[in-house]
Structures are given as structure tokens and as C-alpha cells.
Design a protein that fits this description.
The structure is a single chain. The protein is globular, with a radius of gyration of 20 Å. The longest helix has 18 residues, at 211-228. The chain folds into 2 domains: 4-169, Rossmann fold (3-Layer(aba) Sandwich); 175-363, Dehydroquinate synthase-like - alpha domain (Dehydroquinate synthase-like, alpha domain), CATH 1.20.1090.10. 43% of the residues lie in helices and 19% in strands. The chain is α/β, with parallel strands linked by helices. A 7-stranded mixed beta sheet has the order 1-2-9-6-5-3-4, with helices on both faces. It has a two-stranded antiparallel ribbon with strand order 7-8. A hairpin with a 2-residue loop joins strand 7 (140-145) and strand 8.
Length: 365
């Protein structure tokens, strides 16, 4: 397929390249000053990573660092091990990091790059739908702690992102579906055409002709939001800015933490968005029609829409503590990203406990 390039016009502008067989693009994105590259990859993807490693070895002194699976890699201990390895190899500020993997690898690798010498170049090569449309774009990096998900991190924009769509063809069905959670979310917060495409398609698979357009549209949503508000300082005219991207995430992160990070992020986001829609409906700011559109849209791509479907035993009281340490909270006041209409995101501050519980009851069956 032809390449599509989406320019993220932030303070440190960069390109997101969508296509296939993109390894030859790496030297241009890394720049001519780089001598050493730390190649951070999910260990289970070693075979798929081989072409990238070979391309890097033609130009650079490469340090390969295999990482644990999934969220197990997103710890301060793993980041510290990476930093020690960079130090032993003499990495300087002009050297770089390349990540290859899903959202956890992108988050961890970006955090390693942000922390080493207070910031070195990083290029992301996402291998999942979730990482492609979300984690790889926007410069958010982080690790998890016992208190919750992504509570330690930094803003560190990449030098570029290479989205090789051929990699998505190797994904297990459940991982492809989970990644679509963030795509559907983008349809609700900014681009309703995504919802129309999903609702008009019988089933979305890795081979679906509509998948590249859905991915491109979701990336454009994120690129536009982060370019306008990189560090979540807020938007204009009531728009929440980058916080918009957290639609559904307050409950989602609490559910993930409660599960010991055993459930997929996209699955949790789907349930979290249905919850946020119901909360907005109960608060009187969202119509019944738009609220009711949520569950069918997520279910259409195969995502769960209730806590029961996630396979969790979790009451409201099991989750409220984690929601109170959500990044959007201010002091003891809970804040939720909600919709006032399709593509009209706003912040709902201090919903009542009755509203919170009633909305949870609607998604816990």
C-alpha cells in the first residue's frame, strides 16, 4: 500500500508514517548524529523484530534489550535495568532508543528515553492496534506502581512513529479487538465518521478494507489533540484539551488495577466509556440517544460493555479508591471526561455518589 504521513504539529513536530515495510525509514527519523541505538522489544516478538534489528545494525552500534511481557515490563525496576545497560554501553545524549512492541513497550521505552540524560531521541514501532492509535503517538510515557496505572511518567515526544500495518495481521483476534476500543473512543470524542464506518461493517478483521482508514482516522484524532495541548494544560472554549483522550479511562484504569492488570486495556476502556456515557446521562448533560449508542458500537467490534463480561468480581466500593487517584482528580474531587454530544467533550466535576453508583450499576450486570 502507499504510505500515509501524518504530521504531529507540536512543539517538537514529528511524522507518523503508516504503511508496510518501513524499516528503511529509521535512519531519517533518528538523524545523522546517532551512533548507538538501544532497541527495546517485547521478548516474545523477537522473531518479528529481526528485520528491524537487521536494518539498525547496518547503520548503528545496537544494544538489544528484550523486555518482559505486557504490563510486567512497566515497572521502575525494568526501567532502571535499561538505564544501567545504557550506562554500561556509554550512551550519550546524541544516541537514541527504538521501541518495538505494544502499548506497554511504547510506554516503558519512551520513559527510558525520557529519563536517560534527561531525554534522548526515541522512535516507536508499534505492533498492536492499541499502540498504533494510542500509546505510540503523543509523547506520554510511564510505568505502573502499586497505587495505580501510569502514575509515574513524563511527556517525551518521539522523533517519529512507524506504523507497519503488516504487523497487525499477526495479532491474535482478542488483541486486535482490544485495540479497537481506542478507535471507537475516538469516534465518540472527535470523529463520528469512525462510528458510521464501524456500524456499516459486518465484522472488522485484520484483513478488512476498512481497518486502515479506521486506524488513520484514530491517529489523526490523537495527533490533532496532542498538537493543541501536549501537557494537558487545557483547551479553549470549554474543550478539555488532551484530557479528552482519557474518555472512559477513569473507570478503565481502576478495573485494570483491580484485575492485577490481567484484563486488556481496550476491553476496560470500552466498559469505561459506556460508564462515562451513563454518568453523563444521569447528570443531565448527554441525551439518551447518544448514551444508548455507546454499548452497541463497542459490542459491534467484539468488545465487552459490562464488568461481568470482563470476568471480574468488582463492586463499586472496590473501585472508588483507585478512581480517586486518577490523574484527572483534583484533591478529593472526582472529574470525569464526558460528552455533551457526539464530538463535544467536556469535564464533569464532582458528580454525586448516587450518580456514580447508579452508573456503575448499569455496567456491572
Amino acid at each position: 500500500m502507499n504510505e500515509t504521513v501524518i504530521r504531529v504539529e507540536s512543539a517538537a513536530a514529528y511524522d507518523v508514517v503508516i504503511g508496510t515495510a518501513l524499516a528503511a525509514r529509521l535512519p531519517d527519523l533518528l538523524g545523522d548524529k546517532v551512533q548507538r541505538v538501544a532497541f527495546l522489544y517485547a521478548a516474545e516478538l523477537a522473531e518479528q523484530a529481526e528485520p528491524i534489528l537487521e536494518a539498525l545494525l547496518k547503520h548503528y552500534d545496537v544494544l538489544g534489550l528484550g523486555l518482559p511481557s505486557g504490563e510486567d515490563q512497566k515497572t521502575v525496576a525494568v526501567a532502571a535495568d535499561c538505564w544501567e545497560a545504557l550506562g554500561e554501553k556509554g550512551f550519550t545524549r546524541s544516541d537514541a532508543v527504538v521501541t518495538f512492541g505494544g502499548g506497554a513497550t511504547t510506554d516503558l521505552g519512551g520513559f527510558v528515553a525520557a529519563g536517560w540524560l534527561r531525554g534522548v531521541r526515541v522512535v516507536h514501532i508499534p505492533t498492536t492496534v492499541l499502540a498504533t492509535v494510542d500509546a505510540a503517538v503523543g509523547g506520554k510515557t510511564g510505568v505502573n506502581t502499586a497505587a495505580g496505572k501510569n502514575l509515574v511518567g513524563a511527556f517525551h515526544e518521539p522523533a517519529g512513529v512507524l506504523c507497519d500495518l503488516a504487523l497487525l495481521g499477526t495479532l491474535p483476534r482478542e488483541d486486535l479487538v482490544a485495540g479497537l476500543g481506542e478507535v471507537v473512543k475516538c469516534g465518540f470524542i472527535a470523529d463520528p465518521e469512525i462510528l458510521r464506518l464501524i456500524e456499516a461493517t459486518d465484522e472488522i478483521t485484520a484483513a478488512s478494507p476498512v481497518l486502515p482508514e479506521l486506524i488513520e482516522r484514530a491517529i489523526r484524532v490523537k495527533a490533532e489533540v496532542v498538537a493543541a495541548d501536549l501537557k494537558e494544560t487545557g483547551g479553549s472554549d470549554g474543550h478539555p484539551g488532551r484530557e479528552t483522550l482519557n474518555y472512559g479511562h477513569t473507570l478503565a484504569h481502576a478495573l485494570e488495577k483491580h484485575s492485577g492488570f490481567s484484563i486488556r486495556h481496550g476491553d476496560a476502556v470500552a466498559v469505561g466509556c459506556v460508564y462515562a456515557a451513563e454518568l453523563a446521562r444521569l447528570a443531565g448533560v448527554l441525551s439518551d440517544e447518544v448514551a444508548a449508542r455507546h454499548a452497541p458500537a463497542f459490542a459491534k467490534v467484539g468488545l465487552p460493555t459490562t464488568v461481568k463480561e470482563l470476568g471480574l468480581e468488582a463492586g463499586f466500593d472496590d473501585l472508588i479508591g483507585a478512581m480517586r487517584v486518577d490523574k484527572k482528580a483534583r484533591g478529593s474531587v472526582l472529574r470525569f471526561l464526558v460528552l455533551h454530544d457526539l464530538a463535544v467533550p467536556r469535564i464533569l466535576t464532582g458528580p454525586t455518589e448516587e450518580q456514580l453508583r447508579e452508573a456503575y450499576a448499569a455496567v456491572s450486570v
